[in-house]
Design a protein that fits this description.
Immunoglobulin-like, 5 domains, 484 residues, mainly beta
Amino acid sequence: MEARGLRIWAGLLCLLLSVIELNAQSDPVCYIANGKLVVEIPSPYSQRALDSLIADFDLNGPELRQALATGRWDYFQMNGWKVKTYRNGKVRLRRNFYSYRGDLDDWLSMLFVNNSYNPFQPGIPYMNEPYGVNRFNRRRSVWQTGDSTAVFVLHEFKEAREVLLSGSFNGWKTAEDKMLKTDSGWVIEKKLRPGKHLYKFIVDGVWKPDPQNLLQETDGYMGENSIYYQTNTRFSLEGFTDRNEFYLSGDFCGWKEREIPMTKQGNGWECAVFLVDGTYEYKFTSAGFWVEDQRNPLKVSDQNGGYNSVIQKGEPVVFRLKGFTDAKRVYLSGSFVNWNPNGIAMQRVADGWEAEYVPGKGTHYYKFVVDGKWMVDPASADSIDDGMGNRNSYLIHEPNHEFVLKGFSEAKEVILSGTFNNWTESGFRMKREGNLWKLALYLPPGKHLYKFIIDGKWTLDPGNTLWEDNEVGTGNSILWMYDY
């Protein structure tokens, strides 16, 4: 990117960031000064403002929150940040603003740590955020008719001879789903699982995105794929019909106030959303007025004298800590609660403590906090280096792929490491079963790079012929995950 063009974008970004600087003094801010990208976090700081900053600028949230909680900034320093802490608790992070030369989109994604690898591949529905909301023109073209069905309608091209529907849900096949011509246009009903789906229409052999769908992403061929979310959650709010608008907001969207509009229906408001499995806090908002969901008994403190409503999607997990019956308070903390030391209060049982939580699909890192003291799960052998000389226990919830390494029966230890755990050298320990080493993980759709570390030696997967070169010329094995 030329220096002039970069300066123009820097100016625009400064103008955008100036809005953040107008917040209260307790709000974290991000700005550009003397060729440096600067993040300032005061003490005390507004948690909601920090969440918004993380969401708006793709900041690596779990590592930042853990560093703020522990005071250890090794992770950021190793990734090119200069960190300065002050006696009053304030923290300032600085990084060269002009150190990256590349495409604008790549440059924006490189502003913060750990965003150099992107598993996105055109045609594969990758979720960048834990939620999805459909956005159509007034002439809507996809209607959800049940939990697992949707009707696609192409209102245009009524003079076409043949129209087909192709997308991520049918492997982008080009002769399978022929649409029926009706008075309203071309129509087809499809069975769809809840989640994100990509699609196009093939009109007399020509691929076309949905002209009525406002959501699109690149198809990798100088065109666009349309995006549709088969929703799994309906939010509703009774009353307040005297207001002109209402929105749904929550931690799943960074508490943005005007991100998810609600529709006025009868005696209230409602909206449909797709939520990835997990536990979320939310509220309804209108012009600065916030209200919890009165129909939902699950709620937690919003740290401002009120409450946030809580919704859980997916299967719950019971965390158990045996012993410590003399402890006064025990909490479950981890990546799923942003390492809040008072994250989830555990309940005393006959032989220890228990807590039930819905963490969502994936790998989750956690610890117990016993009367203020952090500790790994003594009942689990699964732990991983946290990058700062300590270890975190981890839970692999609802795995969808099993890595298998054949042979190496004489090896003492086999570690799996890759883009899914930031190439952590301590990685995930694989378990030996006879002549096989195995480990099951949950991997989202997209591209994943990995290697086995066999007694300290990094090794390509001998059972996988798919690989690509890396910066040191030793190669990485490739695994593609699909969602159909």
